């Protein structure tokens, strides 16, 4: 920053700055208006000046500490009704398809695993869509919210995960051919939670491209692992010995990842 | 509004190894401040740091306001957010949302009470150019229309501090007048910091900061009655 000095040197500095900036400022050339355009514009500007549009004044007391209900409402609209309906439609489609095939072609046990594969794929894609990259401006605006970014993101994750879970429950009980029951509910809930969390945490850490690739690799790997290495597969039958330990480890890993993300996010915001 | 100030204490910015802003000291005060400079001068980075959500590479940016006891109190950046409006250089909104839905979303995130959101939105949608956008999806808006929504989202909660990154790009003269009137009202009572590279945007008396290659090379007062840059510096700060 320059300043001070004699009047002459300041004068010179101004001249120099003026020359420099004259050529740099964007020139603005207005189109030549017709007399009618000019009269019309004057009338509109006059009207606006005489009757200023008064916006509803918001006093600082009208601001409130954001409540959870408001945050949930806002995040519901963020995902968009069309997206909610599309994921519901997709779930109905594959559930009916698998249900129909399980009666005729696919063995009952296999049908359940097929269905879990489809549900977990749905959650991976839903999370990828929900947390798709935004431009920098929008990311800045999100951070200017009265809600912390951690709270916004967490609620968004819970809503998408919760919606898919609630939507899948009736199908897991009523689709013919599936091993309907509480144990089956447990069998698919843990993989759904696990895939949602790893897709989300990796997206937050390394970006959506990397997250989606790795999540789909793990998802695909599960399919092969259930035949070759069932000890590490989430898609095994409930009667397998490895079922409970694998489910438990997955649950713990998912909670640890989620906890670590939340703590690091809060620390960054503080 | 409680006489806000933003203290820029030798803050600098480095992005992927490239120096964007060199450290300098400045105090942004009540009223209008124009930030001008070439592309790449560091205007947008400066404004981002002024929002308080981006930390400087070095130095400090902090907010103070007059306390009830008469002195100045420092306000944490997190608390300032509810008093701050910001229009980024690139504003798109969320493509899947309709304009009204988006503004309702923003109002919640500005911390406005749910019971007054509809009233606030109605008052904005009374203006013909905004009424036409109400049911449109954000992804279907033109650049100028996006800019208008971007300005409304920043003004919605009548912020005390308004930070605008080239806000009038793509707006016609009538729309500029409409938004300038709102911005001026905020500048009279609070603080407005606006970057621009168009002289006709400088329509109010206030402070002018010129950035060049990440340095604050000059600061002074604008004098709207004058004709050219010399007048802007007629009362330059020494």
From TrEMBL, chain A:
The keyword Membrane applies. The chain crosses the membrane at residues 84-106, 112-132, 153-175, 181-201, 208-225, 245-264. This is ABC-2 type transport system permease protein. The keyword Membrane applies. Keywords: Membrane, Transmembrane, Transmembrane helix.
From TrEMBL, chain B:
GO terms for molecular function: ATP binding; ATP hydrolysis activity. Pfam families: ABC_tran. Residues 6-238 form the ABC transporter domain. The keyword Transport applies. Keywords: ATP-binding, Nucleotide-binding, Transport. Coiled coil: none annotated. The keyword Disulfide bond does not apply. This is ABC-2 type transport system ATP-binding protein.
């Amino acid at each position: 920053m320059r300043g001070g000095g004699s009047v002459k040197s300041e004068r010179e500095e101004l001249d120099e700055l003026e020359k420099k900036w004259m050529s740099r400022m964007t020139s603005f050339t207005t189109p030549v208006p017709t007399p009618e355009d000019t009269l019309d514009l004057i009338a509109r500007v006059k009207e606006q000046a005489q009757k200023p549009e008064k916006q509803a004044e918001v006093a600082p007391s009208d601001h409130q500490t954001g409540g959870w209900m408001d945050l949930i409402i806002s995040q519901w609209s963020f995902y968009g009704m069309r997206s909610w309906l599309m994921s519901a439609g997709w779930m109905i489609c594959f559930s009916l398809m698998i249900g129909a095939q399980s009666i005729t072609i696919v063995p009952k046990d296999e049908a359940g695993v097929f269905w879990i594969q489809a549900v977990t794929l749905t959650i991976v894609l839903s999370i990828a869509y929900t947390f798709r990259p935004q431009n920098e401006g929008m990311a800045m605006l999100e951070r200017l919210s009265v809600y912390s970014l951690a709270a916004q993101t967490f609620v968004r994750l819970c809503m998408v995960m919760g919606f898919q879970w609630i939507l899948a429950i009736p199908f897991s009980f009523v689709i013919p051919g599936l091993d309907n029951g509480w144990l089956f509910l447990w069998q698919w809930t843990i993989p759904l939670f696990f895939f949602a969390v790893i897709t989300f945490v990796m997206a937050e850490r390394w970006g959506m491209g990397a997250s989606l690739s790795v999540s789909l690799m793990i998802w695909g790997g599960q399919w092969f692992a259930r035949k070759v290495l069932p000890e590490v597969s989430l898609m095994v039958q409930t009667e397998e010995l490895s079922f409970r330990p694998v489910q438990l480890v997955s649950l713990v890993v998912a909670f640890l990842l989620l906890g670590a993300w939340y703590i690091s996010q809060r620390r960054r915001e503080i | 509004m409680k006489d806000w100030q933003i203290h820029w204490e030798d803050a600098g910015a480095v992005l992927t190894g490239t120096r964007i802003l060199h450290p300098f000291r400045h105090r942004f005060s009540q009223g209008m401040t124009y930030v001008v400079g070439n592309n790449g001068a560091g205007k947008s980075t400066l404004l981002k740091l002024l929002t308080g959500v981006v930390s400087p590479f070095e130095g400090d940016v902090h907010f103070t306001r007059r306390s009830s006891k008469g002195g100045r109190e420092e306000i944490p950046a997190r608390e300032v957010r509810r008093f701050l409006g910001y229009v980024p250089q690139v504003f798109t909104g969320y493509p899947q949302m309709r304009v009204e839905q988006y503004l309702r979303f923003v109002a919640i995130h500005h911390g406005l009470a749910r019971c007054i959101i509809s009233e606030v939105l109605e008052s904005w949608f009374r203006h013909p150019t905004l009424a036409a956008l109400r049911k449109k999806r954000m992804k279907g808006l033109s650049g100028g229309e996006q800019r208008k929504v971007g300005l409304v989202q920043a003004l919605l909660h009548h912020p005390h501090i308004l930070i605008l990154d080239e806000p009038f790009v793509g707006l016609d003269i009538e729309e500029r007048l409409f938004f300038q009137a709102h911005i001026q009202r905020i500048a009279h009572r609070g603080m407005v910091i606006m970057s621009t590279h168009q002289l006709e945007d400088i329509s109010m008396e206030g402070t002018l900061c010129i950035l060049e290659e990440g340095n604050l090379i000059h600061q002074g007062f604008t004098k709207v009655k004058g004709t050219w840059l010399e007048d802007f510096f007629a009362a330059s700060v020494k």
